[in-house]
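Exam revision sheet. Question 4 asks you to relate a sequence to its structure. Input first:
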Amino acid sequence: MVHISCDLCGKQLEPGHGRHVVKIEVFTAHDPGLTEADLDADHMEAISQLLEELEEADDPEEIEPATRQFHYDLCPDCRSRFVKDPLSKEATQKFDFSEN
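Answer key, structure tokens:
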């Protein structure tokens, strides 16, 4: 039997009872317009350089992919917190420094 736990709090999740999935995709944004520089660029040279980098790399996995996908399982409580503050901006602003 597959055991699934919340990726934030570690709580065991029962299949069919309050399991939520968060999928995040990070990719480079492309501007829709073409410029003269885009038309004049040597794209074959750029591809050749990328292939050369791949061949020279000790571990091809080290080269950062253009797109990254993430998948997280959350319990109902963590899902509620995530939906309210998906970038955790609130959590980073809760420092309580004492006055010296």
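Marking note for examiners. Residues 43-56 form the longest helix (14 residues).
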